[in-house]
Amino acid sequence: MKRIKYACLEQTLHFYVQDATAIRTAKDEFEIYKKGLERNKTAYKVLSEETQPDGSLIVKLKKQYNAYDCGTYLD
Predict the structure, then answer these.
(1) Which of 24, 23, 30, 29 is nearest to 49 (CA)?
(2) 7: buried, middle or exposed (CB in 10 Å: 19+, 13-18, 0-12)?
(3) H-helix or E-strand containing 35?
């Protein structure tokens, strides 16, 4: 029998705005995403954040998977 002791996801997210007349920027979208993680009490750590020439944002992060303990993954 096996049990999951620790679980963490590493993700690369691409935040972009399709329309140049949009009210929100990619940076704003990322801030909303982070607030959602905090509201849900999901542990996360931003590894890198790169602004692209077109104004989009590529973010690499580690985040808690479901309610599993992350151990030392986010240290």
Answers:
(1) 30
(2) middle
(3) helix 26-39
Contact (CB, 8 A) for 4 and 70: no
Pair of tokens at residue 71: 């151990």
Q: Is this prediction's pTM over 0.90?
A: no
Q: Extract the residue ranges of the chain whose pLDDT is less than 50.
A: none
Collapse the DSSP code of 52 into the 3-class scheme (helix H, G, I; strand E, B; otherwise coil) and give the result.
coil
Amino acid at 6: Y
Structure tokens at 61: 């992060």
Contact of 58 with 12, CB cutoff 8 Å: yes
